[in-house]
């Protein structure tokens, strides 16, 4: 087989196959067996993701994903699966299998490239995305924070049976060696000059305070004991209470104290003053890899920076129109400040009121969704406040439910200070994180029985985040933005993602400072300074990840415009959305090929 993605790099594949590409071929070889083996491998290397997907047999396991044996295991297997994939003839499979082969090829290739990089490693247990081998702990999107979410008893880790409680104790026991490995790797980073910026280290240190200083009965990691099912036997309750007490007091608190002491006394003094990857040995090459990983394109940092500036200028023009329609006297920067401080946009007195507001938005959207969609997810959905231990550094996010529907998808909203919570972006935020954004797309993908299982949890960020940003714009078509401030909120969310293109590339390839990035944001968006600081520090910690939103959205919008132009009266917005969504998360080159084939089929 010539690899699918290499074929797509030329025009040959489309020219040779477009006339029959929408029909299944008669001879279908058993590629599904390889897909099953691949998913078994993915579950084994990332048992936390397997738990998220509802495979209980992995609930006691945790991979030490920054250890040398783990990296060797991954490199061996990704190469092996790529070799196995080459044995199949991509011309003799169905269109859906062809797409799945392309995704598998992409996944293997990008992971192999990352595993050969000297700075990053692969398969962060939260998101199956690159992380940094020599600074594996961060102030955001880090395993020590994710583990705390699991520990509370209301997240992905189940606490319904005695076995569930014992499984968590086993998983915790595997967590402590991981933390030991972190400190070993971070010491290696100190020796080689690959360390975090000091400002990020300073944010991590107080995150551990509550876990060190909280008495056991009130400790988050003890919380499952306070909610044990009534049908547990007295003996099991006593045994588990003793075991969890010992785990918190004798293992967790001492280990977190050791980690905090290491951060304060060893790691912080060695931290760097610079913000971007280009300050590190091999940093520029690493950032180019991260661009490829997160956008599935070969765009350069310079191209993305220019794209970001052009988009910022375009969206500012749209914002000027809204400012003028409201009758505001002053420039756009003054209007940003007005929106930030407008008490009419900060009406809440209790966090519950914020959550109720999102639920009300949900009700408004539900009655209009059928205008542009005919697919509907079955899985449950909830809006919750972000947990207090991570609320100060967190952004809004969606956490998918599991396949059997026993755990709903959750839209988490951080509300660190309810009286200063500004609601002008709430409609756009709900469209992005929930419906028809992440909840809608990821749940449909998870429930799609026509996809091989390895694609159910697959999350190619440029597709997932590009779709969610595209979903925000559907609020205009659905009539969700009912006043100028809500429409301005949508534009604010969009310009925020355009600003990310400028800031990420500026920070990691052009020597921009943290303060320079903060100032650029303050001049071009209406977010509060506190939120902007959190965001800029996120870009510093997770390079490349924020590029995918705008790159993906622009491609989806481009494909829709192409389809509307070429199909004319034959264009169906519902069918276009079906075509985008019904094959799961795709690299952009595969998504474009799929839409091109659909256009040809409809044209006849």
Put the structure in a nutshell:
The chain has 604 residues and is mainly alpha-helical. It is 60% helix and 3% strand.
Describe this structure in words.
The chain has helices at 4-8, 12-17, 32-45, 47-52, 68-85, 95-115, 143-151, 162-192, 198-207, 209-213, 234-270, 283-295, 301-326, 332-341, 351-366, 388-391, 426-433, 438-447, 461-478, 484-509, 514-524, 529-541, 548-567, 573-581, 588-603; strands at residues 120-121, 131-132, 381-385, 397-399, 409-413. By secondary structure, it is mostly helical. It has 2 domains: 4-196 and 198-271, no CATH class; 287-553, no CATH class. The strands form 2 sheets. It has a 3-stranded mixed β-sheet.
Spell out the blueprint of helices and strands.
Elements: H1 4-8, H2 12-17, H3 32-45, H4 47-52, H5 68-85, H6 95-115, E1 120-121, E2 131-132, H7 143-151, H8 162-192, H9 198-207, H10 209-213, H11 234-270, H12 283-295, H13 301-326, H14 332-341, H15 351-366, E3 381-385, H16 388-391, E4 397-399, E5 409-413, H17 426-433, H18 438-447, H19 461-478, H20 484-509, H21 514-524, H22 529-541, H23 548-567, H24 573-581, H25 588-603
Parallel strand pairs: 3-5
Antiparallel strand pairs: 1-2, 4-5
Helix pairs in contact: 3-5, 5-6, 8-11, 9-11, 13-20, 17-19, 17-20, 19-20, 19-23, 20-21, 21-22, 23-25
What's the pLDDT, averaged over the residues?
92
In this structure, how is the largest beta sheet organized?
3 strands, mixed
Order of secondary-structure elements: HHHHHHEEHHHHHHHHHEHEEHHHHHHHHH
Structural class: mainly alpha
Distance between the termini: 29 Å
Q: How many DSSP-defined strands?
A: 5
Radius of gyration equals 24 Å
Number of separate structural domains: 2
Give the % helix. Answer: 55-70%
Overall shape: it is globular
Number of helices: 25
Unreliable runs, pLDDT <50, ≥5 residues? 9-28
Relative strand content? under 5%
Strand line-up in the sheet with most strands: 3-5-4
């Amino acid at each position: 087989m010539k690899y699918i993605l290499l074929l797509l790099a030329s025009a040959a594949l489309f020219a040779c196959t477009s006339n029959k590409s929408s029909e299944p071929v008669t001879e279908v070889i058993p590629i599904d067996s390889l897909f099953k083996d691949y998913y078994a491998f993915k579950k084994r290397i990332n048992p936390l993701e397997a738990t998220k997907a509802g495979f209980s047999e992995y609930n006691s396991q945790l991979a030490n994903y920054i250890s040398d044996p783990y990296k060797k295991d991954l490199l061996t297997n990704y190469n092996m699966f790529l070799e196995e994939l080459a044995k199949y003839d991509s011309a003799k499979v169905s269109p859906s299998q062809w797409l799945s082969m392309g995704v598998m090829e992409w996944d293997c290739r990008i992971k192999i490239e990352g595993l050969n990089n000297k700075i990053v490693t692969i398969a962060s247990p939260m998101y199956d995305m690159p992380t940094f081998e020599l600074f594996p702990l961060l102030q955001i999107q880090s395993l020590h924070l994710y583990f705390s979410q699991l520990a509370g008893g209301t997240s992905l880790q189940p606490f319904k049976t005695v076995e569930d409680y014992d499984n968590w104790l086993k998983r915790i026991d595997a967590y402590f060696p991981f933390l030991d490995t972190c400190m070993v790797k971070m010491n290696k980073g100190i020796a080689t000059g690959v360390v975090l910026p000091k400002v990020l280290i300073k944010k991590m240190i107080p995150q551990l305070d509550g876990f060190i200083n909280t008495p056991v009965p009130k400790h988050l990691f003890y919380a499952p004991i306070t909610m044990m099912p009534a049908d547990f036997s007295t003996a099991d309750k006593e045994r588990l209470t003793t075991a969890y007490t010992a785990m918190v007091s004798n293992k967790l608190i001492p280990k977190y104290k050791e980690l905090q002491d290491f951060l304060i006394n060893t790691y912080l003094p060695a931290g760097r003053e610079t913000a971007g990857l280009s300050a590190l040995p091999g940093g520029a090459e690493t950032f180019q890899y991260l661009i490829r990983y997160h956008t599935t394109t070969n765009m350069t940092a310079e191209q993305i920076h220019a794209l970001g500036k052009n988009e910022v200028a375009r969206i500012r023009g749209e914002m000027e129109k809204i400012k003028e329609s409201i009758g505001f006297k002053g420039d756009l920067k003054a209007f940003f400040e007005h929106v930030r401080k407008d008490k009419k946009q900060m009406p809440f007195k209790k966090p519950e009121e914020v959550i109720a507001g999102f639920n009300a938005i949900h009700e408004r959207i539900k009655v209009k969704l059928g205008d542009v969609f005919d697919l509907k997810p079955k899985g449950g959905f909830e809006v919750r406040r972000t947990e207090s231990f991570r609320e100060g550094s967190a952004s809004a996010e969606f956490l998918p439910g599991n396949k059997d529907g026993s755990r709903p998808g959750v839209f988490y909203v951080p509300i660190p200070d309810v009286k200063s919570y500004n609601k002008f972006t709430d409609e756009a935020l709900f469209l992005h994180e929930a419906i028809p954004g992440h909840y809608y797309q990821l749940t449909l993908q998870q429930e799609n029985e026509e996809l091989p299982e390895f694609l159910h949890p697959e999350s190619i960020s440029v597709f997932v985040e590009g779709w969610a940003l595209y979903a925000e714009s559907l609020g205009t078509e659905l009539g969700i933005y009912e006043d100028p401030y809500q429409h301005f909120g949508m534009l604010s969310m969009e310009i925020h993602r355009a600003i990310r293109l400028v800031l990420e590339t500026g920070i990691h390839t052009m020597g921009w400072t943290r303060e320079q990035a903060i100032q650029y944001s303050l001049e071009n968006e209406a977010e509060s300074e506190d939120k902007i600081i959190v965001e800029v520090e996120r870009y510093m910690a997770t390079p490349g990840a924020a590029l995918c939103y705008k790159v993906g959205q622009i491609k989806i919008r481009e494909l829709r415009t192409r389809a509307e132009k070429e199909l004319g009266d034959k264009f169906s917005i519902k069918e276009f959305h079906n075509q985008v969504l019904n094959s799961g998360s795709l690299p952009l080159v595969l998504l474009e090929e799929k839409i091109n084939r659909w256009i040809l089929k409809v044209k006849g």
